[in-house]
Amino acid sequence: MRFKYLEEFVGNTPLVKLKRLWQGEYVTVLGKLEGNNPAGSVKDRPALNMIAKAEARGDIKPGDTLIEATSGNTGIALAMAAAMKGYKMTLIMPDNMSEERRASMRAFGAQIISVSQADGGMELARDMATEMQSQGKGIVLDQFANPDNWSAHYETTGPEIWRDTEGTVTHFISSMGTTGTIMGVSRYLKEQNADIQIIGVQPEGESQIPGIRRWPTAYVPKIFEAQRVDRTLDVSQQVAEQTMRALATNEGIFAGVSSGGAMAIALSVAAEQEALKKPAVIVSIVCDRGDRYLSTGVY
Length: 299
Fold this sequence. Notes:
Blueprint: E1 15-17, E2 27-33, H1 44-57, E3 65-69, H2 73-85, E4 88-94, H3 99-107, E5 111-115, H4 121-134, E6 139-140, H5 147-164, E7 171-175, H6 180-192, E8 197-203, E9 231-235, H7 237-251, H8 257-275, E10 280-286
Keywords: Amino-acid biosynthesis, Cysteine biosynthesis, Pyridoxal phosphate, Transferase
Binding site for pyridoxal 5'-phosphate: 73, 177-181, 258
Organism: Arenicella xantha
């Protein structure tokens, strides 16, 4: 018998059919439950991939200090992967992120540096990470510009969706933060069937939805390629939170706010297709678990 290492359990997450929030005749709505990854989110995939690929190239070695700006899920995933592979981890994050996220990072042994949301939030955190690297304080993996981010989804998430839908997927919907998930999945699915619609989700107006960003032009992730997204739709914080709660109470899917936002858009697209009597299989990424948001009062 060969026992497995923890990293071998990243990916191959469940793809489940909604049965109460959606009951269409022509359209099927599926949620990919990324909270089932070891550290509880879709970010386990790129976190592990970025460290493993950098290590394989000789860019980093166990014992080095890694630095990353994060709003939460990537930080937790990187902290887990760093602990697993023997790295020190420094995470820089806005001070308005939930305490559950901070506690999770500390549990894995990461050092946390908080920056003021009022003074710049994630943009300030990204600048600080770059400055710390220039001062020799560690190595920035840079999820926003690192192709090892999107390649994790090209190599795993996309193929899993194609496999588990038996090639019937017609729409893929994902919230957009670093954009790694949507970039990697788009690449893979479009290679299988160019007609598959890739839909990105952004926050509406001034909505503050953890994990979903509308970046200032200077901070748009370098890995983002607009032509790989067929439609970009906005969701409000209120609708995202309402849908998040509905997923829990009507489907038993306990997820975070960005997952609610993506699923709200998935249900809207499903209604469009149903009205046209067009058969469709819609896959929405359920990014993480709801337990890391409890202290914020959204539940």
